[in-house]
Amino acid sequence: MKYSEYEIPSDLIFKTEDIKAMGGLKCSVLLNPSDFEDCKDFAGKIKRIETKLSFSILSKEILVNGDISGIREVECSRCLKEFEKSFNEKFSQLYSTKSEIIDIMYLIRQTLALLGGTRNLCSEECKGLCPYCGCDRNEVHCDCKEPSFSQFACLKEKISKK
Q1: How many CB atoms lie within 10 A of CB 74?
Q2: Which of 2, 39, 63, 75 has the greatest number of C-beta atoms within 10 Å?
Q3: What residue segments make up the domains of the chain, in order of their start?
Q4: Nearest Cα to 125, choosing from 79, 56, 60, 64?
Q5: What is the pLDDT of residue 44?
Q6: Rg, the chain, Cα only
Q7: According to the model, what pLDDT value does residue 159 have?
Q8: Are strands 25-31 and 45-57 parallel, antiparallel or unpaired?
């Protein structure tokens, strides 16, 4: 079997025997974002996603190197507006040549799960929301006064009462 004759499975579950018969495989796949709708809690809404895969045959194992890139829609941690953010992540995994299948979709989902842990900012200059009136400080200047905090405020009240 040759690379050119091999049809990439849409579910990205590869048969180990096929990979061994070709002596490895390199491919690039544009994935359907709707396949990841259940991942939006940790990855944001995915607009575009592509993966590049490389399967290398070792003595008793198959090494899979992958690169996932795309665009996702996330919410700014300061102002709560949605914006598009690109991502590019790599993964690597060893599989025994005795296993029947290599499930790449599982690896992609694991990698996407790690994307959600970062703080997302629409820009470094984002001023966020006012904690008192809730206005977006990027669009409106509010006159809310931030209370000054003093560790000795309660003592000041006691002293002023005497």
Answers
A1: 21
A2: 39
A3: 3-126, 127-162
A4: 79
A5: 67
A6: 25
A7: 72
A8: antiparallel
Token representation of residue 118:
């970062």
Q: In what order do the strands lie in the sheet with 25-31?
A: 25-31, 45-57, 61-75, 82-96
CB 47 within 8 A of CB 71: yes
Residues 14, 51, 90: CA angle, nearest 5 degrees? 105
10-residue stretch averages of pLDDT, the chain, 162 residues long: 68 91 91 80 80 93 95 91 92 93 92 77 93 91 76 70 61
Nearest to 56 by CA among 11, 91, 26, 89: 26
Residues 129 and 48: their CA atoms lie apart, in Å, by 29
Q: What is the pTM of this model?
A: 0.74
